[in-house]
Amino acid sequence: xxxxxxxxxxxxxxxxxxxxxxxxxxxxxxxxxxxxxxxxxxxxxxxxxxxxxxxxxxxxxxxxxxxxxxxxxxxxxxxxxxxxxxxxxxxxxxxxxxxxxxxxxxxxxxxxxxxxxxxxxxxxxxxxxxxxxxxxxxxxxxxxxxxxxxxxxxxxxxxxxx
Length: 162
Hints:
Number of strands: 6
Shape: globular
Order of helices and strands: EHEHEHEHEEH
CATH class: Alpha Beta
Radius of gyration: 15 Å
CATH topology: Rossmann fold
Largest sheet: 6 strands, parallel
């Protein structure tokens, strides 16, 4: 992909590593700063426990405190935002991230890893949280993406970044 004249942040939240792998693949194709969204209180490493934690947070609309923060968000034009699909939408740490900054005039390009739910309602939920930003089309990657991950990312970037 040819060089883009915009400053790009690739921000992601990853519980099991799939979303992190995808974010790293995106960074390998486009110049951008990689940023991991991490919670002050990490989720359990036990799958069943994290399911309960995530479901409770979404039901109660609990936005967890974040341990990582972007110091210079105003410098970025495009935020490529990655997350796992939890219960059909974005995990609550993504809500915390989106509520922390002013995204007015920025472009947000969402991507998610999923086990079968695709993007769910995540793109519309992101759009509601950042009404003054442009939210591009999302990219849904099944688990960690498989052998055609690089070509899917390339096509998505070409369609969404000018």
